[in-house]
## 1
Amino acid sequence: MAATKSKTKTLTKWDEDVAETDLTMDVLNSMEQGILVWSDGGVCRMHNQRILSMLELSPEAIYPGITRTEFLEAAAARGELDKEAVETAQARFARRAPFSFDRKMPSGRTVTTNARPLRGGGFVVTFSDVSETRRNADDLAKAKAKAEAAELKALKTLAAEQAWRNEARLLSDLDEWLQCCKSLSELFEILGSFMTKLLPETEGELYIYSNSRDVLDGACAWSGSQMHDHILPDSCWALRRGRHYHYNAQEVSFSCDHVKEQSGVQDVENYLCIPIIAHGDTVGLMHVRFSSETSANMNESARRFALQCGEHISLAIANVRLRDELHDQSTRDPLTGLYNRRFFLEALRNELSMAERRKQKVGILSFDADKFKAFNDNHGHDAGDMVLRAIGEKLNELFCNGQIPCRFGGEEFTVLLPGTDLEQAKVAGEALRAAVEEVKIRYGSGLLPRVTISVGVSSYPEHGILPQDLLNAADGALYAAKDAGRNCVRVASNSHEE
């Protein structure tokens, strides 16, 4: 009876173990993950049913008792793992270190394997389908990369827009200053200062053709560049080729002679020569050297901006020249090149106004060619024009320091002498008379008869304070010189006080 009782207890314990095992398998089979338990010796002790669908296996491919080596080699044969991955997994199992890795299934799914050592020996391995998670992560990474690229593009576009606006503002400022220039010399002075702000990473010079067009004269320089006094037109590839020329030592390029000969410039690697064109005519050259420390992108941007600057400078020079030409046409006599009556009267009024404020003297010379009508009758108007041109050349030669010589009309001339008293004006008139008397005028195959002039002198304020008073006084002195036998100088006798 006691034996029967003991047997009943044993059967009850066995039933409990079986029940516990069934419960464990029920729990494992209810998991979303595939689960595999390895013994300490690398033999499968148990696995759930989920592992079959997770690893796309048939029931005979995994079973309790299969070794870990057989399981891993079968996975490698199916292409889920490579040889290196198998060896790495075995080494980590041997070290009893937790690890994880991904395996690519034949269907394209991604299954991650996580192995964790058990306290009593062996390993529990879980298999999770992370295909969607990986896709989402990839999509997120791609979206992030796309967003970053879009942001970078937007920043670059914004930077380019800002740079363009800054360049446009600088060019607008340059145009405003250049449009206010009264002369080319003033324009060159402004450019020399402005270019250091327009192209701060550069040095350069501006050259303008001389009147003879055989050389280009140095007009201005910036950033401490050493400017030539003159360069020859054929010393620059840009002028010879008729378009801008970019020299880059890293490419097939040939240096201009004017750069080779420039003092203080050694081993120039990057420069730009830009022809300055006004109204279709090449009037000069802008030479720009770029810093070797500047990046290639900045050099490219600076070259583009330098070309824009060249266009604006060309337009400004063209405008100043056109304004000068129009001004000359309205203020100068076309035959002699001297100022005309209109300009002279305006200058005289301005000079008298300043002389009154500054308590200064002003001298007036009035003269004409002696017996000019008879000269025209005897030798012709062409010869008479040559005489007038010769007198004009002599006037420009003698009075070039602020004095204003003028052809008043016909053979009549006047000279405004600012800051000159009566005695000094008389000396200037005598020097003029003697100089004209020495002039030799060739006409055809011979020389024309000697030309003489009679000069009348007046002075502010001795002979008046109004322009007409001074001119009348000088004309009266001129007639007195005629009455005295011509070819002489006379001073106005009637004073303003009288």
## 2
Amino acid sequence: MQLRKRRGSAPSTADPVQALNQTWSKYAREWADRPDLNLGTQVLGEEWGGPEFAARIIHEVAAPYLGDVDVLELGCGGGKFSAHLRERTRHLTCADISSDMLARTRAHVGEGPDVRYLQLTGRNFNDVADASIDFIYSYDVLLHLQPQNVFSYLLDARRILRPGGVILIHAINLASPGGSYHFEVQFVQDTWSRPFDDPHRLGHIYYMSEDQLGALAQLGRYSMHQVVKDWPAADDPMWPVTSGRDIFGFLRREPSLKEVEGVRVVKTPDERLFALADGRRREFKMREIFDQAGYTDADLEPIDAGELDAIPEDQPVSRWEL
């Protein structure tokens, strides 16, 4: 098989976030009138996987995190998941970067005191109140974003999630046979080097695997509460939809240092700074992180090396958790 490179593309002026907004808004506006997009389905998004696929993800994968809770759907698209989520939550916020997509969702899901529609900036959860959400659901959305953009959402999710709240990160697992095949197809199609607003880049994927999800979680101060990478099973009628390439990471928000009771901040004879919390020691790798946490030298207690070494070590204090 020969790989052919695209040549002579026009330079792009759109940044990644602007391009996503423009691309998916155009898709939403044209979807109903283009059989090659809607494939005869009734709800935008059902052209991929069908209505049963969406229902089963909600009822089989996301169900443990639903119930009498407040949920935000990140990237609601045309609402194929939103309608199912609304039935299984106390309150649902349907959020998307595209106003055209939100209009599609609103038309499908309807109005009511238990549902809200919110246009996002593409970088964070603007206009969502602090500590107001229990679960953030997102399928087939964040995998279209650069890892740094995913991380920007993770950081702001810490703000809007209640203590113990969970965010779902769905990705295509590069370590799976289906994921590696999908990667090869996109490489041959040369989607990765096209401008962000090139229509041939539509659907471009940033791949992850379990260790990468874990690294993002740790950096953002989340624990990996659950990983699902075997749904649907290979003998399931739905399996051909994904060929086993999906991976779901359910990341639970860990408390910030300021939210942990009884924290001690200590200084060693060689001027290293640590926080002692929950029976573990966490180092401030940089003085600026110590300052950012709101501590001063007056808060520091001296500690000798022997006492410090007897305390189990945990990950360093992250600037992102404060």
